[in-house]
Fold this protein.
Amino acid sequence: MIKPIVKTIELEDGRTITLETGKLAKQADGAVMLRMGNTMLLATVCGAKEAVPGTDFMPLQVEYKEKFSAHGRFPGGFNKREGRASDYEVLISRLVDRALRPLFPEDYHADVFVSITLYSADGEDMPDSLAGLAASAALAVSDIPFNGPISEVRVARIDKQYVINPTFAQLEKADMDIMVAATYDNIMMVEGEMKEVSEAELLEAMKVAHEAIKVHCKAQMELAEEVGSTIKREYAHEENDEDLKKAVHDACYEKAYAVASSGNANKHERQENFNAIVESFKEQFSEEELEEKEALIDRYYHDVEKEAMRRCILDEGKRLDGRTTTEIRPIWSEIDYLPGSHGSAIFTRGETQSLTTITLGTKL
């Protein structure tokens, strides 16, 4: 008989969230079924053991999917199958991705796939605000290295009262609707909309959200303890040469800082000057040595360049093109630029441009 491990989170309004693991998707590295009322989400996570050679980023993929059957329906039309992800599902996937991605170790480069599927919906509780918690819980019970846990909650203000994870009906009465993602210690992301609330009111909403998230994180820590997944897998996805790293920093930092603080508004010239620094450093090596070390040199110099830019902004208040932190790029716009279209406009800010056209439909 299967004996799943279950953790229950109690909300202030009497509702509960349960996290269940050990019953479903046992082939996944981690799987958690989250339930709130009759809304149920299954989150699974699978991670490759080794990174693809040459990968220097975090290949994370998050997919949120709502099944038609969760609402007691099936797809209409000729094709009776689930289609591609809707815009709403893509946006929820991005919300979860944004909270998870920064918490993987910087030197962890193995493919990780997180899948969150809505299998049952009661039409009352909103599943999108539960997706982040489900995904993090699945990572918590896996052996994939992750500096979490995290959770996401929706905060709505209804009649001057803050409500965590409101129902669909409650949200219609709200004048504030924000999604907050956080770890036990820090807020990771805030996104939402509101009707001209004050900064103090927004900060209070974030504090309320963070207090709720702390409870979620504590439950995940306890769940991981019971599962025995507090020790994560070992990995070695990067080759490093500490002597070479120090040599690159010592030889290139001051030069990179000089370019960063020069205030050159020409982006192409500025990039050429940055490139010249690392190319000059490489000249001391033979072709055989560069075959072995060039990738490391480029990676270490990227970190040096990033540090120089950051310190210039924080210490001197000067950005790469010479602007202060309170200045914006020059903005200009022009309408009716294209004579053949029904309407057109150019919008330019600095070197970023948008050329927009509009065409009116013909009579049927």
